[in-house]
């Protein structure tokens, strides 16, 4: 397989009744995208031809039956299935879930076997994907099982990175999931990803509190004092620049978030509400900490817009750019790390980022 040195970007189709197909095609309609990456869409040529007609685009696909046959400078479509599939835009139904998972499983297999360099996932619906063979609340949890490493859901944009201590966890279960072990693992992951994937030499990390006003000395809950503070003190004593816990309510409004390379929120909405308020449409969801790279847009299936040709594709395009950029930064970091005597090269790498 001649890849002409382009990074191979595998793309899972997501829920076929959502906006996934539209944002993928809008992204690759711009043929300049093919100058720095080779896309492979995991779906079927039949299905993609249906979408092409639906959205009246003149995009050209190159159908392949084996990943080894992919061609650089083409928008490759790997036939993961051959049968006709009914698309019913805007409908949450079992077909949408079934084919989303077929596509995702094939793409993750290719990622594990290094047939693709990075994976960019189009959005899935968390309800219709559930089955006996797939019982995960999202991509992050599935990838954490399939790949190696300690995963972290990390939302990134040009000026903001927010990671989550607990991600797809019901609010009633958040507190019991915030353990010393989890805090150590998540901080370790964000620390290493900032250095290795983003080239930041001495990362500064802020952590948001669990309770309102970080508990106000135990008046509104004591977990900030009994669990979070001791864990962060220990991490600090071991040399990492970790700050907080900060009261979450004023952290973004005050502008304090601009002083850090990344912010760790205690639970999903504490982190994702400010992120999506500040960066929606341009943000990227990166599964950090694993031995392979996966990104996705910062939004979901948007069934209300599906089939209408009005969805914004910029976040998906950013997800492709980010995956490629993280892949290159990590590769460079790993190459330099293999030659520890070249310390000056490593310093230069970290400074130039
Ligand atoms: N990466 C993923 O697979 C992913 C991410 C987020 C949500 N989801 C899932 O998607 C489903 C729907 O979730 P939701 O309704 O909470 O969020 P959503 O992001 O699908 O929609 C929220 C709002 O944002 C709008 N919106 C979303 N994407 C847009 C785009 N590209 N252009 C313009 N407007 C856009 C929608 O029209 C809607 O009004 C849920 O099952 C959720 O779990 C999946
Ligand atoms: N929490 C993510 C968001 O709101 O954007 C989303 O649910 C995606 O999760 P996965 O990447 O795990 O599918």
From TrEMBL:
Domain of life: Bacteria
InterPro entries referenced in this protein's UniProt entry, alphabetically: PdxA_fam
Pfam (any one): PdxA
Keywords tagged on the record: Metal-binding, NAD, Oxidoreductase
E.C. code: 1.1.1.262
Enzyme class (EC, first level): oxidoreductase
GO terms, molecular function: 4-hydroxythreonine-4-phosphate dehydrogenase activity; metal ion binding; NAD binding
Protein name, per record: 4-hydroxythreonine-4-phosphate dehydrogenase PdxA
Organism: Aequorivita antarctica
């Amino acid at each position: 397989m001649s890849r002409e040195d382009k990074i191979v970007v595998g793309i899972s189709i997501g829920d076929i009744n959502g906006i996934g197909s539209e944002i993928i095609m809008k992204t690759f309609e711009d043929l300049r995208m093919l100058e720095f990456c080779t896309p492979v869409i995991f779906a079927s040529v039949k299905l993609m031809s249906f979408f092409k007609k639906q959205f009246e685009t003149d995009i050209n696909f190159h159908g392949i039956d084996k990943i080894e046959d992919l061609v650089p400078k083409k928008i490759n479509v790997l036939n993961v299935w051959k049968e006709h599939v009914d698309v019913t835009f805007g409908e949450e139904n079992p077909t949408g879930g079934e084919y989303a998972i077929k596509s995702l499983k094939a793409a993750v297999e290719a990622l594990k076997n290094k047939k693709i360099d990075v994976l960019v996932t189009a959005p899935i619906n968390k309800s219709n994907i559930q089955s006996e063979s797939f019982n995960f609340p999202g991509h992050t949890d599935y990838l954490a099982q399939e790949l190696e490493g300690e995963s972290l859901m990390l939302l990134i944009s040009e000026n903001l990175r927010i990671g989550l201590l607990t991600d797809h966890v019901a609010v009633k279960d958040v507190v019991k999931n915030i353990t010393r072990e989890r805090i150590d693992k998540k901080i370790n992951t964000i620390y290493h990803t900032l250095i290795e994937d983003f080239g930041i030499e001495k990362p500064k990390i802020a952590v948001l509190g669990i309770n309102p006003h970080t508990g106000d000395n135990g008046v509104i809950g004591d977990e900030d004092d009994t669990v979070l503070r001791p864990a962060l003190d220990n991490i600090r004593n071991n040399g990492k620049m970790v700050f907080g816990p900060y009261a979450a309510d004023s952290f973004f409004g005050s502008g304090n978030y601009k002083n850090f390379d990344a912010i760790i929120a205690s639970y999903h909405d504490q982190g994702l509400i400010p992120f999506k308020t500040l960066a929606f449409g341009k943000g990227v969801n990166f599964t950090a900490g694993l031995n392979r790279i996966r990104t996705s847009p910062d939004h979901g299936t948007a069934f209300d817009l599906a089939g209408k040709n009005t969805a914004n594709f910029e976040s998906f395009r950013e997800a492709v750019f980010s995956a490629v950029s993280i892949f290159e930064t990590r590769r460079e970091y790993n190459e330099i790390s293999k030659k520890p005597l070249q310390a000056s090269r490593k310093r230069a790498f970290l400074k130039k980022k």
